[in-house]
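Below is a typical protein record.
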Amino acid sequence: MNKTSTADPCESAFARDVLAGLSQPQKAIPSRWLYDRRGSELFEQITDLEEYYPTRTETSIFNTDAGDMAAALGPGIVLVEYGAGALVKTRILLDALDAPAGYVPIDISGPFLRDAAESLSADYPGLLVTPIVADFTGPVDLSTAPGDADQRVGFFPGSTIGNLTDAEIVKFFKAARNSLGPKARFLLGADLKKDPSILVPAYDDSKGVTAEFNLNLLMRINRELGAEFDEAVFSHEARWNSSASQIEMHLVARAPTQATVCGRMFHFEAGETIHTEISRKFDYASLDHLLAEAGWRREQTWSDPQGYFAVTLLGPPLA
């Protein structure tokens, strides 16, 4: 007899984060929940927009320097990617690597991850691809990963590190050190500080794709948690916080409204917001400080001519 799932969606991690976040004075929902299948698809559209420089710039660094990166990493590595997306930069790196022993993409969006992994497996038939559906901000079990700990290299492109607070960055890199192994290395993409006139349009594009991406979160809450958000009342807003050196994405209520989520009522005044994402911009000093606190050291760095973006190779601290 087939068993029907009776899991209550209001007992899920998604529901817990939504309910806790909407109960705060500044309503906020962790950015990882932006990435259901539709959210992941929309983000890939964002990366192709003219205003969105990070993906284009980072890709140019990989196109120029992947050979040097591969030489620094050496042969036979197992690439472990945190928050795997459309895998464009991954493919560039894999093409440059010397006989990689495996690829382990980790992402919270299971359907999107499986589609990407199947596509990669078809194009790299000799590569052992082992996708892991998990929230990479927490502990990740790599027991199913190919190879051994000495072969593993963490991979975190796209400046997703910018979505995390200082405490979350330190927690993530400590957890990565524990799961990858004490001798592991790590290839990290980080967006660097620059003029807000470049930054703000990247997160509030003229075609409205970023707005649709942000508003999709309300659609997801309605669909998965049986909520009653009036999506038409909310709009997308990107703000530059100069003191924190970060872009902040908000969903703004344009008029008073309310919504029921899992039996709880939440009220919004006109102008009240749900904070959905930060995108921090780094300099090397602040980045080095955070990495050192988590047990990593920046060994080598590649950047673009404008100094917009950096890809850095991390290793264990010097003895």
